[in-house]
Amino acid sequence: MYFCTSCGMEQKNPTKFCRNCGERGIDSRILTSLKIEADQVNLKKGGNEATNESMNTLDAIEKFRREADELARRKNQQN
């Protein structure tokens, strides 16, 4: 589940514009790139440093996305 980082409304597709406030969503190229990187990490599943680094990066991105969604949700509740 995704939320608009501007108004906090739930978004079905994070690459589109928010139907509530018109805020632009995440660039589809970035989303595709992240999905490809995640697939590559899952294929390797090794203990090498590069894989661990990629996984740490993806974990950090996911944590940031969750925090942004939570902040947007709180902002929406305040309005």
List keywords for this structure.
5% strand, mainly alpha, single chain, two-stranded antiparallel sheet, 79 residues, elongated
Q: How much strand?
A: 5-15%
Number of individual domains: 1
- Class inferred from helices and paired strands: mainly alpha
Principal-axis shape: elongated
* Element order: H for helix, E for strand: EEHH
The helix tally amounts to 2
Ends apart, CA distance between termini: 20 Å
**In order across it, which strands form the biggest sheet?**
1-2
Describe the structure.
This protein is mainly alpha-helical and 79 residues long. The chain has one domain (2-78). It is built from 2 helices and 2 strands, in the order ββαα. Strands 1-2 form a two-stranded antiparallel sheet. A hairpin with a 6-residue loop joins strand 1 (2-3) and strand 2 (10-11). Helix 1 packs across helix 2 (49-78). The model has no long low-confidence stretch (mean pLDDT 81).
Would you kindly provide a brief summary of this structure?
By secondary structure, the protein is mainly alpha-helical.
Write the layout of secondary structure elements.
Layout: E1 2-3, E2 10-11, H1 28-44, H2 49-78
Antiparallel strand pairs: 1-2
